[in-house]
Amino acid sequence: MQVPFFGLAFCFAGERGGGKSVTAWLIRLFVKDADQVKDPAVRRRYGILGGAVGIACNLLLFLMKFFTGMITGSVAISADAFNNLSDAGSSVVTVAGFQLSGKKPDKKHPFGYGRIEYVAGLCISMVIVLVGFEFLRTSIDKVAHPETAAFSWVSVLVLGASILVKLWMGLFNGKIGKAIGSATVGAAAMDSLSDVAATSVVLVSVFLSQITDFPVDGVAGIVVALFILWAGITTARDTLSPLLGQPPDPKLVKDIEESLLSYEGIGGVHDLIVHSYGPGRIIASVHAEVPADADILKMHETIDLAEKEISAKLGIMLIVHFDPILTDDARVNHLHQTALDIVHQIDPALSLHDFRVVDGENRINLIFDVVVPYDYPVSDEKLEERMDAALKAVDPRFFAVVSFDRSFLGE
Q1: pLDDT at position 101 over 60
Q2: What is the mean pLDDT of residues 316-334?
Q3: How many CA atoms lie less than 13 Å away from 84 in the CB half-sphere?
Q4: How far is the CA of 101 from the CAs of 56, 105, 216, 240, 284, in angstroms?
């Protein structure tokens, strides 16, 4: 056992050092065009590599700990072994998820299969939680009916080797998860680090069980089970969020808005919605404000160009709707500023767009949209009443016709 143990220590030291690491070697060997992380095919190769390494390492650790637990009669070591087996199963699901997510869109799924990666992560979390509950039950029974586990230096070496392997796996998956922006691989990294803590508890219990009659083995098993449950719950949280629909990356939002505003004639953007159908499959729609007196054919050409160039640059599918805005009417601009000032006086967190004026003989409708934060304490009806009253204080003929929006950007 000593040669593999010190070999693992050497690998871990190389991973932390500045030289060529095992991670870099594996990436160079199995991931073609590794620096092209935005390419879905390259991203898929990264994910499959992470899953394959997880299968190999966790199966090895399971076999080592399983036989050690059988020999010593330690429920904590056995629990840790099956924790590794569940991790191997999770890695199988990860590989399958990344492989299936690469399928091209078809008639049944025109937006592709990218979300399978999230479904795979959810399956992983369910397996982890089930294993955690089973070993929590077994460990509680061990506390109620304690048995002395046999001490063995082999178990110490096995657990020590496991800690080093899991530390390396945490670094390995952390690097891959960060490179490709995968919550599933990132969760695997956190799971490996939680396994380090769990196995460390088991290692301590091996020594303590020899000097006390306290059911250390059972208590350690409970701690390991709690680590397993926590890993399952956090994995479920990280994969459910994108499945249910979460706010887009703020950097992507900023890049879309700034890119659009760089085109001549586009003076503002609003109503940006980003739909994610899995990593590398993002569809965004946005309204771009353009001068009402602009040449419509020329403006349409600009919008088409913006859609194509920004989509290619950011790796998304962008759809732009343009809204004509009066920019050279002094009266409309003054009324727009009046309405904006009133909205900001009510709350600076509110924003206004799509302002229009419709004149009547005894009534002037000021029509606009207001974006209201989620969980805002004032109802839309009350807000409209306050805006209408403030506008009538300026001119009794003013009537506020307000549509209320909620941002899809998590703001």
Answers
A1: yes
A2: 89
A3: 27
A4: 22, 10, 45, 17, 20
DSSP 160-203: HHHHHHHHHHHHHHHHHHHHHT-HHHHHHHHHHHHHHHHHHHHH
Q: Put residue 73 in one of left, alpha, beta given phi > 0 → left and psi -120 to 50 → alpha.
A: left
Tokens 């991790």 found at: 87
What is the C-alpha separation between 384 and 29, in angstroms, rounded?
A: 62
Indicate whether this model's pTM tops 0.70: no
Say if residues 117 and 199 touch (Cβ distance below 8 Å): no
Q: How far is it, in rounded angstroms, from Cα 190 to Cα 118?
A: 16
Q: Tell me the CA distances in angstroms from 186 to 47, 94, 169, 253, 300, one per residue in order.
A: 11, 12, 11, 23, 42
From residue 157, alpha-carbon distances to 105, 200, 223 in Å are 49, 12, 21
Mean per-residue pLDDT, 319-347 = 91
Region of residue 290 (left: phi > 0; alpha: psi -120 to 50; beta: else): beta
> Predicted confidence band at 411 (pLDDT cuts at 50, 70, 90)?
low
pLDDT of res. 4: 45
Does the structure show a pLDDT above 80 at 327? no
- Picking from 282, 242, 247, 273, the residue whose alpha carbon sits closest to that of residue 116 is 242
Give the 3-state secondary structure of residue 143. helix
For 62-118, the DSSP string reads HHHHHHHHHHHT-HHHHHHHHHHHHHHHHHHHHHHHHHHHTPPP-SS-TT-STTHHH
Q: Return the HEC string of 201-249.
A: HHHHHHHHCCCCCCCHHHHHHHHHHHHHHHHHHHHHHHHHHHHHCCCCC
Q: Is the dihedral of CA 303, 312, 315, 103 positive or negative?
A: positive
Matching residue, tokens 């003054």: 334
- Local confidence band at 253 (pLDDT 50, 70, 90 cut-offs): very high
149 neighbors 219 (Cβ within 8 angstroms): no
Give CA separation, 220 vs 21, 77, 202, 254, 284, in Å: 33, 9, 6, 48, 49
